[in-house]
Amino acid sequence: RKLTKEIERIHVKSKARYGAPKIHKMLVNNGCDLSLKRVQRLMKQAGIRSITKKKYRPYPSKEKVIQLTNLLKRDFSTQTINEKWVADITYIPTVKDGWCYLASVLDLHSKKIVGYSFSRSMTSELVIEALQNAYTNQKPRKGLLLHTDLGSQYTSSEFTQHVHKYQMEQSFSQKGCPYDNACIESFHAILKKEEVYHTQYLD
Fold first, then answer.
1. In a 10 Å sphere around its CB, with 0-12 CB exposed, 13-18 middle and 19+ buried, how is residue 171 labelled?
2. Could you tell me if 105 and 192 lie in one domain?
3. What pLDDT, in 10s, does the model give residues 18-27?
4. pLDDT tens string 174-200
5. Quick one: which of 167, 152, 174 has its CA closest to 72?
6. Count of structural domains, the chain
7. CB 114 within 8 Å of CB 140
8. Domain ranges, residue 128
9. Could you tell me how far CA 63 lies from the centroid of its own chain?
10. Are residues 146 and 99 part of one domain?
């Protein structure tokens, strides 16, 4: 009963976003010695469920994409901050402005969003602004690795010029392979499931 009460407290505090894995992790961090299966069982008995929703998946593009160099090669390990950044764009619906777009830049060492930009249009300017914000905030040294997918915004000459200006090395995922950029994909998925899909934004 005591464990179930604590599970309910964590669940309510997360605004019902957290499921068994996250609740289990918080309980373990608070000194509880129990398995994930036990948390799942107690939640089922008490009728406690996460309200998170499935990720929206846009239709894949059939355009032919030129493969570019993948320097990251799924090596997400780092020694310090400002060593490897990953970037991506995600869709967010609004009532007044329809689909809007969020471009984020994440530091693989701190798992912190170091730069972002939000716009009604998915253009090169959107991702350039996110990169500029990250660069201004962090002031990284020469040679930082910046990894993105093969989206036209990231392969544009305007974006590449800014990458070179900041003396960064550009790396690209293989076409149709989200695992190459798993960390930022995961961040956007969690942002959607725990916040965006439960909120109706005016603009």
1. buried
2. yes
3. 999 999 999 9
4. 988 889 999 999 999 999 988 998 899
5. 174
6. 2
7. no
8. 84-198
9. 25
10. yes
